[in-house]
């Protein structure tokens, strides 16, 4: 009698307290069915053999320096967390992986600086309100200037989004959200 044990990286996953629950995955596909990114792009856009939210985490467990791009594809809506019958929480796992990108040397420095800027903006309400008032000025930027590969790779093949003339906060204060009138207290 021969007994062959295939570990397939499971011992490494078991060692990781943050990602150990990945081993509970029953490969039901619920996370893929609810994922807006997977539904829009399909499985071929992922680099790991298993697509979808659980595949992102499994890929990062096996080879993070190669699979790191997939964590940025997630919108972090966490709908996969709420439908997972095994309570693996694949979206939360992806969030944890995003936080560790700088440790493996794969964090995008521009995204990091943008996050720092957003922290400053959200901590200072007056600055935030000023930025909201200035945002519609971006509508004046010509469409041709938004299609650079280095500065804006998303802009290639996409039209420039238009900023709303009034912010959500302004519409809320006026009692108009999605065209519905709200009673003010």
Radius of gyration: 21 Å
Overall pLDDT level: 85
H/E series? HHHHHHHHHHEE
Residue runs with pLDDT of under 50 for 5 or more positions: none
Q: What features would you describe in this structure?
A:
This protein has helices spanning 10-15, 30-34, 36-41, 52-62, 64-67, 79-83, 90-99, 109-123, 125-134, 168-173; strands at residues 176-177, 180-181. With 185 residues, the chain is an all-alpha fold. It has a two-stranded antiparallel ribbon. Strand 1 and strand 2 (180-181) form a beta hairpin. The longest helix has 15 residues, at 109-123. The protein is elongated and about 75 Å long. The termini are far apart.
Compose a concise summary of this entry.
This protein is an all-alpha fold.
